[in-house]
Structures are given as C-alpha cells and as structure tokens.
Amino acid sequence: MTQTSPRVGLFVTCLVDLIRPSIGFAAVKLLEDAGCIVEVPEVQTCCGQPAFNSGDRKTAADLARNVIAAFKGYDHVVAPSGSCGGMIVKHYPELFAEGSVDHAAAVDLAARSHELVSFLTRVMKVTAVDAKFPAKATYHDSCSGLRELGIRNEPRQLLASVEGVTLKEMTDAEVCCGFGGTFCVKYPGISDKMLEKKLKHIAASGADTLIAGDLGCLMNMAGKLKREGSHIRVRHVAEVLAGDSATPPLAEAE
Amino acid sequence: MDTSTATFPQNVKRALADSQLQHAMTETGPRFISKRSKAREALPEFDALRDQARDIKDHVLAYLDLYLERYEEKVVAAGGKVHWAATAEEARAAILGICQRVKARTVTKGKSMISEEIDLNHHFEANGITPVETDLGEYLIQLRKERPSHIIAPAVHLTRDQVEADFRKAHTHLDPKRDLSEIPALVEEARQVLRQKYFDADVGVTGANFLVAETGTSIIVTNEGNGDLTQILPKVHVVIASIEKIVPTLEDASTILRVLARSATGQDFSNYTTLSTGPKRPGDLDGPEEYHVVILDNGRSDVLGTEFQDMLRCIRCGACLNHCPVYQAVGGHAYGGVYPGPIGSVVTPALVGIEKAKHLPNASTFCGRCEEVCPMRIPLPRMLRAWREKEFEKHLQPQAMRTGLGLWAFLAKRPKLYQMVTRLAARVLHNRGHGTGRMSSLPLASGWTQCRDFPAPQGKTFQQMWKERRK
C-alpha cells in the first residue's frame, strides 16, 4: 500500500504562540515523525473561543472565518489543545446558519480538525513514540479534550510508551482545574478553591511531573504550584512525547 | 424571590470563608458522585434510557397544551380540581383560598421546590397558617429559617454537629444526655416530633415529580415516606407542580423514574414512589376528602420555543449540582435563587431576569460535567453560553471585560498587527520574569496573580521562531 504524506496545517493556538513555543515545536516533531508534512499558516491568530464564551458570537464568527480561510486545503488541521480543537470541531458549525456557505465551510474544517494526541493515535495510528523522558507523571484530563472530543486513553497510551515515564493516576483527574478561560479572573476565589482541590490530588498521586494537553490549564495549575513552592514540574503532553526535557518546565527558571 | 442572586460575588466570598460549609461540602459531594457512578454501571441500558427520557419530555413540550388539558379532564373525572396559576402570586392565592375555606390552621408539607419558588411558607405565616415541613432536610432548614441549598438535599450545607445543635435548641424536651451523634438518631427524633403534626394538619401540600396525563395521577418520590403521610392523613391534599411536570402515560413516568433516582442518589428507586389520583373514593380506607392540583407557569411558557426550552426537561435530580466543581466549591446558597448549580444558573435568569441574575451564567468553566451526567441530556453549557450572549447584547458585562475583549478582538482580526503586538508582549513579559520563569504580579491581571503566579513566556512567539527556523 502506498500512501502520500498528509499535509497538516498546525493551528499553533494563541497561548502556545505567545507563552510557550516549545510546545508548538514538539507538536511539529511529533507530526513529522508520524509521517506528516507540517505547515504553519502565518495568518492565524486565535480560534475565537474567548469571544464565543463571552457571548460575542459575531467576533467569534469573524475569527472562525479567518481560521477557515487560513486552513483551506490542508488534509488535516491539528492543534496542541483540546480546548481550541473542541472550538473548531464542535462549535464552529454552530456559529453559522445551516445551509449557508460559511456553515458548509465550518463543517468541512471541523471534519478535518483534530487535537494533536488524538490525531496521532486515531488518524496516524501511532501506538508508541520514540522518546525518553524521566518522569513520574500524573495526567490531568482537560475538560474540552475529554468531554467535547472524548480524549482519555490516547495521551495515557502514548505517554506509557515514553522511555522513563511512569504514570501515576490522581484522584479526580477528570475534574476541572478551575481555569475556564476568563472564569479564572472573573471568579478568582472559586477558581482558587478548585485549584486547591486539584493540587491536593496531584500531590497525593506521588508524581513529580504534571502533564496535560492544554496550556491554559497548565498555566493555571503551574501558577499555583509555583506560588506554593511545589517542586512538581509542569509539562505539556507534546513536550514529553517529543522527549523535550531540555526546555525548562512551565513557570520555572531557565 | 430573594434578590441576593444579584450579590453573587459577595455570596461567594462568604461561602469560601465558611469553614463549616466547606467541611459539609467535602463530606457529601464525593459520596453522591460515586453512588451515581455505581448505579449507572449496574444498568447497561442507562444511557439508552436517558435518550428515551429526553425524547418523552421533548414530545410533551411540543404538545404541552394538549397534555395539560387531558390531565385536567382526568383529574376532574377522578373527583379532583385543577387550579391554573400563571404567576407565583396566583398560585399562592389559590392555595391560601383552599386553606382558608377549610379553616386550616396547620399545613403539613412534603418536599417541593415549587413551594420554594412561590415562597409559600412565608405566605402561610403571613396569613396565620402554620406550615410544617416534613422532609427531614426541609424541616431542618425551616428551623433555621433558611432556603434549601440543594434541590434534593436541602440541608446538605450543614454538618452533623450543626444539625444536632439546632435540634437541641428547637426540641426543648430533649434529654441532654441523649446521643444524637449519628444520622439515624436525628431522623428518629424528627419523626417523633413530626408524628403528631401529621394528624393535626388540616391540609397537606406536596409537590409532584410527575403529573400523568392519561390517568390524572400525580407522583412523588421520597426516601422518608413523609410525603405519603402528608397527603393521606389531612382532609385536603393540595399538589403544587409546574406545567412541565406532565408526562403522557404511567409507562413514560416509569421510564423517567428509572433514571431519576439513579442520577440523584444512586438508588435504583427511591424508597417510596407514591401515586395519588383524586380524593378518597367510596370504599377507600384512607385518603383526603378534597384533592386539588395547582399548576404553575411562572414564565415557563415563555421559554417554550426558544433556545432555552430544553431546561424544561429537567426532573430536578440534582446530578448537575453534585458534579459541578463550582457548586461544590461554594454551595447552593451563594447562587441566591431557589435553584442552585448549573440548572439554577440556567433557570434563575428565566425566572428573575438576566439583569438580576447576570453573574450566574458566568459562574461556570464550561467543564461540561453537568451535561455529561444530566439524565435528561440538557445541554447546560450551551444554555449558559446563550445567557452570556443575552448579557453581551444588553451590555451587562463589566466594562473592563468588554474593553479587554474588544481590544483583543480588534488585534485578533488583524494577523500582521497581532503578531507585532504578541512579539512585543512575549519579550516584555519574558523579561519581567527576570529569569525565574514566572511573575507574582502583573498589571491589570490581579484576578490571576492574587492566587497564582503567571508563567513567563519563553521570549519569542512561535510564529517568530518558525520564520527564523525556515530562513
């Protein structure tokens, strides 16, 4: 059977672009290792979720149109985030009237779009990665990836294949960390309470590394872990799968 | 209705600082979750039943007028009377009218959220009638002059110690040496006190989990059997229910019952499922002489046909509260309305107006756990978002947030400009971390930094590095 390499457009996500490009490069490596040709459209900014979740549908629709245009023609669109992935896959089609040209384009993009790890396992049929990473790791299921895209086993399966990684499940891994986009600054008290419970479970797992698939959640959890002086290192799943232990963990000194 | 919905942020602060509340929530929250989970695992067709339950209610809502009329005919045929109430005021007036006609002095009550919604107890008291709540949790909060903090577990915000203290204060006959440290002892004590009240009551008021159109039957589920005594012993039984409680047939009720208790408490069925159809018939050993059903609209028919219609499928099981990390963090009273938690944040704006309830739809991370467990598959996050859209249209959100989002949207729509700004921000914020990789304060971001550090960017944007790499 001969197959041409799929052409993948990387949706970097605004947080990875601004805060932690190393996740983007790890994603590129993983996609290339899996046999994809990766391109990064220059005109991308944000998927529009902050507007969508703030009730500003018009801005969300405008940004969705930009993303749809930027990723026209790619075999697949892949984002290192279940949250942005969920926005494109589940919510873009909701933004436009059924029967409209925009709606058809949104449905078409949604069908081609994936979160990184689930793309590797489901589409590229990756069952193991060739990487080393020393970590006693616990995996936090970010809400959108878990509940909108059904991602649960995929990251655990690939993480288990990394040489040096031992997985330690925490209690309530599937419970929200309290990030919630603008929620965490609108209601910092509630967010903090949710974080407090999450951190308790992370600590009780005995892990030395916290892993998740969404930078927003990771920034939230790392922010409180470091505020409290915890030595637990925080990593995006792509960095671990790519074996990038050279980049300092999130929120830690260079 | 209490207007403290409007003071949600202050309510939250109080709730987070209330150590007894926090203790009570940590005790009970996880228990509900594991019980539901076990009940669900034990029933392979559980998710298929959820689909059926949803379809039944969707069908009812499409033909609601028809089924309500059918239901009334059947109630009348059984010798009962239906009172239609468009508003809470009309419902209160109808119930008070019945009570005054029979010169009622004491009214026993089964647990009813509609009674809370129309604030019935205050109305009784204001008119010289003594309401006696017979559900243990409701009885407790009546003693404390509080509202329920949970749809099915009204006193879930209380610790055992608080309950014991309340009992000792109210039940002055209690021997100080009597051991009340375990829940069964508390239940027994409440039973003793309530026993005589059942016989003294002139009218019994209950809610309804279902109104069955084919038979004119109202159905309640309880775990204490208090509802049965409330509706059988007094001369008059008044059912108070809202329009969406209708189901076409007994078969339909039984389908939904199969998901109700499992979702609520993790039981296969509640201890008591009680059906009542009309007053006592010739030859019946027990039963009331009069049977009334007060059917409340209170804004629900306005929701029909809108993007919020799905909220009317709710069967008030409380699963969304139990699984909501926000509810579990702050408890039910912080929400300020009658219905707390995710379903409350969807229903309350419809009842009191989005202006008053504007905080509630925002008190969600959209984690989606509520929708995941809802037995009626109500798309709660979608409806919370729809309320946010109303807020956006009406300019109800804080100006700072609108300005911030507006600026961000302006940039995000202009990729070239956006990339110039993000490059600058990546560098400036990186430097602000002074090599530590994080910062403990950040201008305009105190909401973030008051409880957590802000991770410093790596210094260049991905786009910038990608371009450099490809040169």
Structural notes for this entry:
The complex is a heterodimer of chains A (254) and B (471). Chain A is α/β, with parallel strands linked by helices and 254 residues long. Chain A has 13 helices and eight strands. In chain A, helix 11 (188-204) packs across helix 12 (215-227). With 471 residues, chain B is α/β, with parallel strands linked by helices. Among the domains of chain B are: 43-298, Rossmann fold (3-Layer(aba) Sandwich), CATH 3.40.50.10420; 400-470, no CATH class. In chain B, 51% of the residues lie in helices and 11% in strands. The chains are: A alpha/beta (254), B alpha/beta (471). The interface between A and B is large, with 70 and 64 residues.
Shape of chain A: globular
Mean pLDDT of chain B: 95
Largest interface: A-B, 70 and 64 residues
Strand order of the largest sheet of chain B: 1-10-7-4-2-3
The CATH H-level homologous superfamily of the domain at 43-298 in chain B = NagB/RpiA/CoA transferase-like
The largest pleated sheet of chain B is described as:
6 strands, parallel
**Helix/strand order of chain A, N-terminal first:** EHHEHHEHHEHEHHEHHEHEH
> What is the architecture of the domain at 43-298 in chain B at the second tier of CATH?
3-Layer(aba) Sandwich
Helical run tally of chain A? 13
CATH-defined fold name of the domain at 43-298 in chain B:
Rossmann fold
Give me the count of strands of chain A.
8
What does the radius of gyration of chain A come to? 18 Å
In the CATH scheme, the class of the largest domain in chain A would be Alpha Beta
Overall helicity of chain B: 40-55%
Query: Which class of secondary structure composition applies to the elements of chain B?
Result: alpha/beta
**Adjacency order of strands in the biggest sheet of chain A:** 2-1-3-4
C-alpha termini separation of chain B: 66 Å
The name of the CATH architecture of the largest domain in chain A is 3-Layer(aba) Sandwich
Instruction: Provide the residue-averaged pLDDT of chain A.
Output: 97
Number of domains of chain A: 2
Unreliable residue stretches of chain A: none
